[in-house]
Design goal:
Number of helices: 8
Helix content: 40-55%
Largest sheet: 6 strands, parallel
Radius of gyration: 19 Å
Strand content: 5-15%
CATH topology: Undecaprenyl pyrophosphate synthetase
CATH architecture: 3-Layer(aba) Sandwich
CATH superfamily: Decaprenyl diphosphate synthase-like
Order of helices and strands: EHHEHEHEHHEEHH
Bound molecules: farnesyl diphosphate
Number of domains: 1
CATH class: Alpha Beta
Number of strands: 6
Length: 248
C-alpha cells in the first residue's frame, strides 16, 4: 500500500461508535454489530502498527456503558475476552504492546485475567502500544489522579506546591501515554463522550458519519492526510503572523 503521509500522529484515539445502528440497518440484533466491530478493530490495529503509529487507544467500553441492557454487557464482555485471547498471536507478530486503562476491577474476573495475560505476554514488545479503554471514564481518571496526589501529600511524599502538569501526568492511568494527536469518531456524533479528557486537550478531531463496522484502512489514511493539513498552533499565533507583528 503506497500511503506516505508527511507526518504521522504519535497517538491516535478512536471512539468506535455505530455498531448498534449498523446491525439495526440490517435487521440484526445490536450485538451482531459489535461482533462485526471486532473485525474492524483487528484491521485498524494492524494498519496503525504497520504505519508506525506509537499508540492507538480504543474506547471499547465506557464507565457509562454498564447501564446498557445486561444481555448486551454480557455479550460485550465475552467478545472482549475472546478478542484478547485470539488477537495475542497477531499482537506478537506485529510487535505490539498491549495495555488497558479504566476501572478494570469492575470487569468480570475472566476478562481481568485475559487482560493480565495479554499485557504480560506482550510487555517486551517494542512497537506500537494498543490500549483499550475499558470501564473507562475521563472524569473518573481525573478523580483517581486527585486521590493519588492527595494521598502523597498526606504521606508527606510531596508538597501541594509540587503539583504541576508533569506530576498530574505521572499519576494518570498510563503515565507514559503521549498526548492525543488525532481523535477519530465514527457514527457522526459531535462530542468527546468522556474519553481521555486530560490527553485530548490539543487533539485534532476527525468525525465521520460512517458506522464503525464500515470503517476501513482507506478512511484511516484519509484521517491522517487531513491531520497533515491542519495547522497545530497549541495556543500560539501562526509563524507568519508572529513575524508580521515583530516587523511593525
Ligand atoms: C458503540 O456503538 C460501541 C461500543 C459501546 C462498544 C465498542 C465495541 C466494539 C467495537 C467491539 C468490542 C471491542 C473490542 C476491542 C473487542 P453503539 O452500540 O453505541 O452503536 P450505536 O450508536 O449505533 O447504538
Amino acid at each position: 500500500m503506497d500511503f506516505l503521509p508527511t507526518e504521522l500522529p504519535r497517538h491516535i484515539g478512536i471512539i468506535m461508535d455505530g455498531n448498534g445502528r449498523w446491525a439495526q440497518l440490517r435487521n440484526k440484533p445490536r450485538i451482531w454489530g459489535h461482533r462485526m466491530g471486532v473485525k474492524t478493530v483487528d484491521i485498524i490495529t494492524s494498519e496503525c502498527a504497520r504505519l508506525g503509529i506509537q499508540q492507538l487507544t480504543l474506547y471499547a467500553f465506557s464507565s457509562e456503558n454498564w447501564q446498557r441492557p445486561g444481555e448486551e454487557v454480557t455479550y460485550l464482555m465475552s467478545l472482549l475476552r475472546r478478542f484478547l485471547l485470539t488477537e495475542l498471536r497477531k499482537l506478537q507478530e506485529n510487535n505490539i504492546r498491549f495495555n488497558a486503562i479504566g476501572k478494570l476491577d469492575r470487569l468480570p474476573i475472566r476478562v481481568q485475567d485475559a487482560i493480565e495475560h495479554v499485557r504480560d505476554r506482550t510487555s517486551h514488545n517494542t512497537g506500537m502500544t494498543l490500549c483499550l479503554a475499558l470501564s473507562y471514564g475521563g472524569r473518573l481518571e481525573i478523580v483517581d489522579l486527585a486521590k493519588a496526589l492527595a494521598r502523597k501529600v498526606i504521606a508527606g511524599e510531596i508538597a501541594i506546591e509540587d503539583i504541576d502538569e508533569t506530576l498530574c501526568q505521572a499519576n494518570l492511568y498510563q503515565p507514559d501515554m503521549p498526548d492525543l494527536d488525532l481523535l477519530i469518531r465514527t457514527g457522526g456524533e459531535m462530542r468527546i463522550s468522556n474519553f481521555l479528557l486530560w490527553q485530548v486537550s490539543y487533539a485534532e478531531l476527525w468525525i465521520t458519519p460512517l458506522l464503525w463496522p464500515d470503517f476501513t484502512e482507506q478512511y484511516l489514511h484519509q484521517a491522517i492526510v487531513d491531520f497533515n493539513k491542519r495547522e497545530r498552533r497549541f495556543g500560539k499565533v501562526p509563524c507568519q503572523k508572529a513575524l508580521a507583528t515583530t516587523s511593525v
